[in-house]
Write a structure and sequence with these properties.
This protein has 463 residues and is mainly α. It is 72% helix and 0% strand. It has a single domain, classed as Amino acid/polyamine transporter I (Up-down Bundle). It has 17 helices and no strands.
Length: 463
């Protein structure tokens, strides 16, 4: 590999939108309505949580788009933080991406892919005698090992595809996205049109149990919705490979998030018209059922379950691929600044950061063995919203520090929109600490596990 190669600007606006949507639509649209129902006990409140989650995500995306319009480059928020805050904060963010945010996202998506594959093929059970082996009574690496091994194999196959070249990886995402949109619209059309559908039950605001709907429960439910919306900021990571990045990245983020919000509302209204809240709560308690599968089974029977399992397989394949594609770029940018392992800063003959992709794949595989899907996703959302808030705060800082800088896009509703988003990030982080302390503590530990790495790299750089 050569160290003097440069990333090529080869992606236009269409590919930017594909990468945004491809990084968002993954497992959440199929699975997360069940834990939300278990928290809120009301179909109407579940829909409100999806809407508020979408609006808050849009507020964050609008704020991020203004910052990207000024500073867009390979590495996304890592580059922004280095220029706005300092090298240490930028490193902590980049390390968090590697330690938990992006790698755990890859692990979670691959895990759901493997679950769907197992439901279709019924893979042989591996190492059942070690299923109860634990590390500290917390991690059970060999529990469901067949599914976990399948997820690990997917991660490495997609990593190798993306090592071949950027256009190869982006092309896979584009093809998969066409299939996913087609499948989701089939579910909406046939689901709402079936005689089993009761659309009005989607808008019932009375709780279906004695448990009240509290503010804390609402925020906890939105952890699930935010996982479904998570990934929109990843397009900033490939800023150095986008044509006219300072115009196309803001446009792509806004267009992509709007499209996803519309699709999610249609799909979740369909689920709620087919399944009652008690049914969704039972699906959540079972631990091995997927809400979308049961909804489609209601009007298409066994063939419907087969169809939706295949669609989930395709969707999570595409989202895993898009996440792998984008996520390796910040580590490359960090290595170029001597804030990550040196080998991650080299490109192969296809002008792709192959070493960065391999490091990411190895750690994502380790995380697959560490926990369950919902544990991983709650940990991700807790960690990522700390940094989402920092990016929105940067809108205020740059308006003050660089008032005359060219802004291809200015956040709509300034200063109210970024201020609301920052406030929401603060509340979400503290609510997660109280309602999901284990996931919050693990997230904090992984974020700050980078401190000795920073000290080592800083000392080495000075020498």
């Amino acid at each position: 590999m050569e160290t003097n190669r440069k990333l090529l600007r080869s992606l236009g606006l269409g590919y930017v939108i594909v990468v945004v949507i491809g990084n968002i639509i993954g497992s959440g649209v199929y699975k997360k309505i069940a834990p939300m129902a278990a928290e809120l006990h009301s179909s109407g409140w579940v829909l409100i949580a999806w809407i508020v989650g979408g609006l808050i995500t849009l507020f964050g995306a609008l704020s991020n788009a203004e910052v990207a319009g000024i500073l867009a480059d390979t590495g996304g928020d890592f580059v922004y933080y280095k220029k706005i805050y300092n090298r240490f904060f930028a490193f902590i963010y980049g390390w968090s991406l590697f330690a938990v945010i992006q790698t755990a996202a890859i692990s979670s998506l691959a895990y759901v892919f493997a679950q769907s594959l197992n439901s279709l093929i019924d893979l042989p059970v591996l190492l059942p005698s070690l299923s109860q082996f634990s590390i500290g009574g917390i991690f059970f690496p060999f529990e469901g090992f067949t599914v976990k091994l399948s997820a690990i194999l997917l991660i490495f196959i997609l990593t190798m595809i993306n090592i071949i070249g950027l256009k190869t990886g982006a092309g896979v995402s584009k093809l998969v996205l066409i299939l996913v949109f087609g499948g989701l619209f089939l579910i909406v059309a046939f689901g709402l049109g079936s005689h089993q559908s009761h659309p009005l039950q989607s808008f019932n605001f009375g709780p279906d149990s004695q448990a009240p709907v509290t503010i804390s429960a609402f925020f906890t439910a939105m952890l699930a919705s935010f996982w479904a919306y998570q990934g929109w900021a990843s397009v900033g990571f490939i800023g150095g490979e986008v044509k006219e990045a300072k115009q196309n990245i803001p446009k792509g983020i806004v267009a992509g998030v709007f499209m996803v919000i519309a699709v999610y509302l249609l799909v979740n209204v369909t689920y709620l018209s087919l399944l009652s809240i008690p049914q969704l709560e039972e699906i959540y308690k079972s631990g091995n059922q997927i809400a979308a599968v049961e909804a489609v089974r209601a009007f298409w029977g066994a063939n419907g379950a087969l169809f939706i399992s295949f669609l989930i397989l395709i969707t999570t394949l595409g989202c895993t691929n898009a996440t792998i594609l984008a996520s390796a770029r910040p580590y490359y940018a960090m290595a170029q600044d001597k804030l990550f392992f040196k080998s991650a800063g080299t490109l192969n003959k296809a002008n792709v950061p192959a070493n960065s992709l391999m490091m990411q794949g190895i750690w994502a595989a380790v995380l697959v063995l560490s926990g369950t899907f919902d544990q991983l996703t709650d940990m991700i959302i807790f960690a990522v919203f700390i940094f989402y808030g920092a990016t929105s705060l940067a809108v205020f800082i740059l308006r003050r520090r660089m008032p005359d800088a060219p802004r291809p896009y200015k956040v709509w509703g300034y200063p109210v929109v970024p201020a609301i988003f920052i406030l929401f990030c603060i509340v979400l982080v503290f609510n997660t600490i109280f309602t999901r302390p284990r996931e919050a503590i693990l997230g904090i530990i992984l974020i700050f596990s980078g401190l000795p790495v920073y000290w080592f790299l800083h000392r080495k750089s000075r020498e």
